[in-house]
Here is the input.
Amino acid sequence: AGGHGGGEARWSRSKRMVMAAAALLGLAAVAGLAARSSSAAALRSRGGLVGLQQVVRCNQGGGKDGEDCGPHKEEAKAKPAEKRQPAGDSACSAMGDNCNTTKCCKDEGMQCYAKDQSWASCRPRCTPGPDPVAADGWPWSCETLGLRTEGEVLPPSKGGEDCTKSKSCETPGLQCYRKGEGYAACKADCNEGVDVTDQDPSPWTCEALGTRTPGPADWVAKECAQPGAACVDKGC
Here is the structure.
């Protein structure tokens, strides 16, 4: 009985020693994990600080030639302002003129676009291909020549509206004519002097502002697709 009791005591002590060792190993593992987590957090914090410093340095123009911006290089770059041609330059072309030589337009918001090697025109925009309002169906290349003129192009004026600023009419066939200082209207034609159909008896100067709004050219009905038909093959 004594031998049996001694064996149980030794087994109990061994069991306690094993459990204590396991507990110590567990504590060591937890401590190691905490240390690694702390190190990772420190690295993340340091990385975020470095990134912030890089952004600040970029915004302040620091670094090598102001370009050393690391991963935030693209964020710090400012888009350069578009260069524009001053409006009203007498050396530049007006609407309807050939700007192939001058390569600039005097009217606000206009850009000189090439049709071919010999002809270019001042327009607010250009779509490559045939122009339905042009006298011929020869396609436009729409190559930009020179700079766009400062200012913006206003939408065409509707019937009865003042077209002094837009200098264009929405309805095909109409022309913007000046009546006097501060007022102009879209009309099919204009006779200088008093218009008996006007409520205002002040005379018209009939100065043409801009160009007459063109309608579809004669070739369009023959060569282009009819309304509602597929225009993939004809291109107009």
Summary: The chain is about 30% helix and 10% strand. Residues 2-76 form one domain.
